[in-house]
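Retry 2 of 3 after timeout on previous attempt. Resubmitting structure tokens to design endpoint.
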């Protein structure tokens, strides 16, 4: 929102004799979706690229943002040549507007903001640069902004994940990937506590509560709220607010068996049982040789194999995402 202009204290305010039209509201992305994961190699960029294509094919106006600021490759997943303008040009003020780095993808209603390609590599964005970028992302006049995040749990990655309207965590149906997804979600949760209530030591308090004792959790974050109410009602309310606004969505990639397709709901149920926090389930995408074949051909999956099992799964995920707004 634009800031109100300050009036000089001695200025005389003249009221108009005729009514003026209300100022036209600034455009805003209807929904910002961040797509992250515990580590690389889980197909996050492929999911992001083809989810963007699926949403655009369903009639939504979409901007894909390669926010993997140290290893941008989203253009390859889309079958697009390396763009000449990237996030670096915006962050380093070589262009004035984020719209100036939008590049076409060949798909109607879908544009790309490519990740940094130069010495910036933006993996270590300054606070002011990050704030500016996040602010401008939210003013894009589209239905969806999809952020393809880098791997890991750096503050830049977590802050992009948390600023989004929806956070999607991609994982494989494998024990190590599931563990990494848990770590990512916990890191994002603690980062949320630190940013929403910097004067409270909620992160340490909840971390102690989540520490296993005799193989079991002594408390959940909601138990901490109950305990806090006994001594500090305002602090309890702040922590409860932080808990209530945290509900990432899980997406399972490369599912092979029936059990693989059931992993997502199982993880969601376990998280709620052991941590007392809500997760959502966005869907599963089948393991499919068509995916690597499309990558080798430098084409998007949706173009190379639109009838494949993986493409069909991503279309269902897109429909699930759209349904969340109904």
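Retry 2 succeeded. Sequence:
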């Amino acid at each position: 929102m634009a800031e109100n202009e300050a009036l000089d204290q001695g200025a005389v305010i003249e009221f108009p004799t005729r009514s003026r039209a209300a100022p036209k509201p600034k455009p805003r992305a209807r929904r910002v979706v961040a797509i992250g994961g515990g580590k690389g190699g889980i197909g996050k960029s492929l999911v992001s690229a083809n989810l963007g294509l699926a949403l655009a094919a369903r009639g939504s106006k979409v901007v894909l943002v390669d926010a993997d600021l140290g290893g941008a490759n989203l253009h390859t997943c889309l079958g697009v040549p390396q763009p000449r303008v990237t996030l670096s040009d915006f962050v380093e003020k070589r262009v004035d507007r984020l719209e100036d780095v939008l590049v076409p993808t060949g798909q109607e209603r879908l544009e790309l903001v490519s990740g940094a390609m130069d010495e910036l590599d933006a993996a270590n964005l300054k606070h002011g640069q990050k704030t500016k970028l996040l602010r401008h992302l939210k003013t894009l006049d589209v239905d969806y902004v999809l952020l393809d995040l880098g791997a890991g749990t750096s503050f830049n990655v977590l802050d992009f994940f948390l600023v989004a309207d929806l956070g999607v965590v991609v994982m494989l149906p494998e024990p190590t990937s599931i563990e990494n997804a848990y770590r990512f979600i916990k890191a994002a949760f603690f980062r949320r506590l630190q940013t929403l209530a910097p004067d409270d030591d909620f992160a340490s308090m909840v971390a102690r509560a989540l520490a296993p004792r005799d193989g079991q959790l002594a408390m959940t974050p909601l138990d901490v709220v109950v305990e806090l109410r006994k001594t500090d009602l305002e602090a309890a309310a702040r922590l409860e607010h932080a808990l209530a606004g945290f509900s990432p969505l899980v997406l399972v990639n490369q599912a092979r068996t029936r059990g693989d397709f059931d992993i997502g709901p199982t993880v969601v149920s376990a998280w709620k049982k052991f941590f007392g926090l809500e997760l959502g389930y966005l869907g599963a995408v089948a393991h499919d040789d068509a995916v690597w074949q499309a990558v080798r051909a430098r084409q998007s999956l949706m173009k190379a194999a639109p009838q494949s099992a993986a493409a069909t799964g991503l279309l269902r995920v897109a429909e699930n995402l759209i349904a969340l707004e109904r």
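Attempt log closed. Strands lie at 31-36, 62-67, 102-104, 110-113, 144-149, 166-171, 212-213, 216-217, 249-255, 280-286.
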